[in-house]
Amino acid sequence: MHVGWLGAQMYSAFLVGHCERDSVSGEGGLELVDLTVSYPEAPRPAVDSLDLVIEPGELVCLLGPSGCGKTTILKAIAGLLELAGGDVRMDGRSLVEVPTEKRSIGMVFQKPLLFPHLTVGENVAFGLRMRRLDPGFIRGRVTEMLGLVQLEGMEDRRVTEISGGQSQRVALARALVVEPALWLLDEPLSQLDANLREEMRELIRSIQKQLGVTTIFVTHDQEEAVVLADRIGLVLEGRLRQIGPPARLFEAPATVEVARFFGGHNQIPGKVDAGRFHCELGTFVLPQPVPPGPGILVIREEAVELAAGENSFAARVQNTRYMGTHQQITMSARGVVLGMRVSSSRSLPVGKIVDMCFPSDRIWIIPGLDG
Description:
Blueprint: H1 4-17, E1 30-37, E2 47-54, E3 59-63, H2 70-78, E4 85-90, E5 93-94, E6 105-108, H3 120-130, H4 135-148, H5 164-176, E7 182-186, H6 194-211, E8 214-219, H7 222-228, E9 231-236, E10 239-244, H8 246-251, H9 256-261, E11 266-273, E12 276-279, E13 282-285, E14 293-299, E15 305-306, E16 312-322, E17 326-333, E18 336-343, E19 353-357, E20 364-367
């Protein structure tokens, strides 16, 4: 029988969100080893030789643009896609031969995918009822989960009568009621308005910390990733380019692509020698030892200062753009175009020559790139 796209997605939600009683369980530590996934006739793998270790109880955000492979990674972990190579291990045990419904995984999709003919409570209870557990136990778990997602007393409401944000809360509760070892969330907030997204982020983070469930959260929203994650993994073109605490990816990018993705648009080629960086703009003192040789100096726009002194140089204002909370300024110095941000109240007329400064503790050098 052809069930269509929505039917297939709901079936996937049922399989993953309501794991069987004898499913693989444990602390929830996850390891992806050389994970590779390919789609028929695609010119390159959707996920290409990806390695990732997630500790029990950790919340990792997979961040990247649309089509980069984030959702494919989740589906591979859940067993919804066949691997072209590599392994998925939970607590050291390979899941490659383990059916989806036995992987102890709860998954939440972009759309809540609730069963429309069931009430809120019945949707949450569905996985437990499939296990034929005691009705009293099920009622208690449903009440507990609805309290956790702040939907107390809504057991008997029809899902067609609740809001989009409430529907997604029901989906969260449905995935968690079976106590999965791993919680997978595929852009679950992307269809909510800005204020509701902020509220839901806080709720998800609070629930994850309270339960200690190992979690992978997929998003294309940098702010969302920063707010939620213990670590962010940046995925570009099917590869994990860098993973670490949010501040690390913003302030110490591993490559120029990572720097550019996180807004590090000031990238100046040059060479390191004796603790200093030499480039078209002059010579800059570095805050940490860097191996000598070619490299790229990266400094974020908000880190650039209007000041004279060490690591400063003269620049001309080329353009200003009012952004509400700040002004975006384009500067030119010795043939190099730079960006910076200043207070929205600061007056910087086009054509004015000012002193710009790169504070040494805000400079980051990406080595090994010949400028």
